[in-house]
Design brief:
This protein is an all-alpha fold and 71 residues long. Helices cover 41% and strands 0% of the residues.
Length: 71
């Protein structure tokens, strides 16, 4: 959900490059948001091919994502 909020803040852009995201359906509401976040480098050091995108987002990770978004 956190990435989806940031994605909406950014105007819901659609990325040309799509990643193979195991565990998430391409029809899921967060699929485009997660692809965008990966393309923008917001998930630095995150193994998106085996990621648990439904997990809670710890405070430190949220701050890191916001830092990457604004820089």
């Amino acid at each position: 959900e956190f990435i989806t909020f940031i994605w909406r803040l950014a105007g819901m852009p659609i990325s040309d490059k799509k990643y193979d995201l195991s565990g998430i359906n391409s029809n899921d509401y967060s699929y485009d948001a997660i692809n965008w976040a990966i393309n923008e480098g917001l998930f630095e050091y995150f193994d998106y091919s085996h990621g648990n995108f439904d997990a809670n987002c710890p405070r430190g990770e949220a701050v890191w994502i916001l830092y990457n978004y604004y820089n």
